[in-house]
Amino acid sequence: MKRSSRARIGATATVSVLSLALITGCGGGSDDDSKGSGTSKEAGSSASPSTTTAAKALSAAALKKLFLAKGDVAGYEVDTAVDGSLPKSKSEVKTDKTDCAPLAHAMAGLAPGGTDASASYTVTKTPTTTASPDDASFEDALDVDVTFVGLSSYDGDGAEKAVKSVSDAIAACSGGFTISAQGEKQKVTKVAPVKASGKGEESVAFSVASDMDGEGTATLNTEVIRAGNTVSSYYTFNFSALDSGKAAPVPAAVIDAQLAKLK
Q1: Pairwise CA distance, residues 25 & 122, whole Å
Q2: Are 61 and 4 in contact (CB under 8 A)?
Q3: Distance between CA 13 and CA 22 in Å, rounded?
Q4: Of 62, 172, 196, 225, which has fewest CB within 10 angstroms of its CB?
Q5: How far from each other are the two terminal CA atoms of the chain, in whole angstroms?
Q6: pLDDT tens digits, residue range 111-135?
Q7: d(CA 17, CA 26)
């Protein structure tokens, strides 16, 4: 591949990420509700019986204290800053199909279920090189994983309902849907279940194929995990993977470190 082609890929990947960032923003909390019901072991999920019927939700402020911090995951940088240009609540993220809203919310680091208590941040794999005129190092610089991590907390069995709403949406939205956020639209052409990590008390994972404005299809992975009455969501993209059409896996090290904070 010629250097000019790599430059085009880099530019396309950057534009794509900026477009996705408008939809999957790392906001500081949610002030809108959505609904779900029950529990499920279908659509890429694993589950265990409920132990949360008397649980009380943590506040958004309390959830922020459970964020990963610098040094918690070797090789990763944590960014808890809130960018006001990105969605901070579910009212800013719309879908053309109501049943698909839990997927869009999970991808945005927002609560997939009915709660006001949520907070989110990003974790980025530390690049090993920086971009330069050399072709190899240019590609290496694009090979960076960025993961949006969202935490949400629920009263009673709300966390279980939230996980089920995601599981149900995977099946209901397999043919795709459209996300709108802050005047931008993103077309998801396909939703499919993928193998979940099995972490926490319940976990469900899915991939979405997203049209990149005629520049190909990006495939991205999301995992949602319940630990007691707290739900954590992980949405990962990689600059290089956006052009290849392959999905970057959600980093196991990030999941493990975040779940350890929730115990």
Answers
A1: 9
A2: no
A3: 14
A4: 62
A5: 48
A6: 999 998 999 999 998 776 555 555 5
A7: 13
Residue written as token pair 């709403």: 165
- The Cα 235–Cα 210 span in angstroms is 14
How far apart CA 171 and CA 179 sit, in angstroms, is 17
CA dihedral 210, 181, 126, 140 (to 10 degrees): 40
CA angle 114, 120, 125 (to 5 degrees): 140
SS3 for the chain, per residue? CCHHHHHHHHHHHHHHHHHHHHHCCCCCCCCCCCCCCCCCCCCCEEECCCCCCCCCCCCHHHHHCCCCCCCCCCCEEEECCCCCCCCCCHHHEEECCHHHHHHHHHHCCCCCCCCCCEEEEEEEECCCCCCCCCHHHHHHHHCCEEEEEEEEECCCCHHHHHHHHHHHHHHHCCCCEEEEECCEEEEEEEEEEECCCCCCCEEEEEEEEEECCCCCEEEEEEEEEEECCEEEEEEEEEHHHHHHCCCCCCCHHHHHHHHHHHC
pLDDT tens profile 70-80: 999 999 999 98
Instruction: To the nearest 10°, report the CA torsion of 248, 252, 255, 260.
Output: -170
Find all residues with CB under 8 Å of 186, minimum gap 6, and list them: 19, 20, 23, 178, 179, 180, 210, 211
Which of the four pLDDT bands, split at 50, 70 and 90, describes residue 49? very low
Question: Nearest-5° angle of CA 131, CA 133, CA 139?
Answer: 50
Cβ 243 vs Cβ 9: under 8 Å: yes
